[in-house]
Amino acid sequence: MPDVTLNINGHSSDVKTVFVEANELITAVCNARGARPVANITWLEDYTSDVFENYLFSVASFENRTFNSNSVVKFYPSREEGNLTCISKIQRTNITILTQGTFYTFLYLLFSWWSTMLKIYQFLTLLATEM
């Protein structure tokens, strides 16, 4: 099982309550370390199913035959009080093999690789703009 941590505006998941100013942008980072296969990270607000549509997800590194993943969500709180949860689940990837030849499989793998690279680029761009 991966080791999962949650940071909100720099406060670690050891802190149970984080106080923020009104209209303050919340930056939440969920890290899943030591997963195999890659962990799928989803976000819950007030225990409601995945309500965040726009968040970044990236596989940060591969070490000791396990994956380290990060997910970042930014939002402005809509109420005075709320609960934010990140959930890490092991993601199993299914690949469909078409019998018409290897060209289709190659295109699928190329698209999957490109999609992952795009997510990493978006994550790095977000980090660069914050510095």
UniProtKB/TrEMBL annotation:
Keywords on record: Disulfide bond, Membrane, Transmembrane, Transmembrane helix
Chain segments annotated as transmembrane: 95-114
Domain Ig-like, residue spans: 2-96
The keyword Transmembrane is annotated on this UniProt entry: yes
Name this polypeptide is given: Ig-like domain-containing protein
Organism: Holothuria leucospilota (Black long sea cucumber)
